[in-house]
Amino acid sequence: MPDILLVSDQEKRIKSLKRRIETWRVFLVALYSILIWTESWYPAPIVGTVSTLFLMYWYWDPPIITSISLFFMILSLIDYSIPRICTYVSQPQQWTAANEKKFEIICESLVKTQDTIYNQIIYFLDLKRTHPKMYFLSLFSSCSLSAWIGYTVNNWIICFILVILILLYPGVKHNEVLTKFLSIFLNRVTNSIRSYTEKDSDKTK
């Protein structure tokens, strides 16, 4: 019974999210197609765009207050312009069932991501209450490691790598790139071992 209630609650949240971001659906579906690499060349513009933005910011090197102001200015501009552009470009009759399915997948993924983050927060709060020593050691160790990495490695390189990994992750997961790479690697190792044993057996004969 609790599982049924959880599923029902999740479906309600998905429907609520769909209503709230409906004006963004054309943009989100297009972005979703890029992130999951519906075309094999999509990783190149993702990496290229992120690299260009980081290079521009590194070259300009604005102060922190200016950076924060620009960030929120760009966010407000996107929030104002994207829904209006989507409404102007795409007519309701052009919205297909396939697009609706993709939009539902996006909303479901957003809700599941929100649940994952919430569950992790609850887990750490419970860990703090039930096992305070383990909580302290885990938090202290992770913060110490992060501080050491941040001190020894250029912070912009770390941010660049993290952004690239986050943006490439949906495509890697959807196309099972790691599984395919691991399969190819294991096949090559197996073939190498087989060829080596065959040569060794031929020598003994």
UniProtKB/TrEMBL annotation:
TM annotation in the entry: 21-38, 58-78, 155-172
Residues in coiled coil: none
Membrane topology, record value: Multi-pass membrane protein
InterPro entries the record matches: ER_autophagy_membrane_reg, RETREG1-3-like_RHD
Subcellular localization, as worded in the UniProt entry: Membrane
Keywords: Membrane, Transmembrane, Transmembrane helix
Positions of the RETREG1-3/ARL6IP-like N-terminal reticulon-homology domain: 24-182
Cellular compartments per GO CC: endoplasmic reticulum; membrane
PANTHER family: ADP-RIBOSYLATION FACTOR-LIKE PROTEIN 6-INTERACTING PROTEIN 1, ADP-RIBOSYLATION-LIKE FACTOR 6-INTERACTING PROTEIN
Protein name as catalogued: RETREG1-3/ARL6IP-like N-terminal reticulon-homology domain-containing protein
Species per Swiss-Prot/TrEMBL record: Daphnia galeata
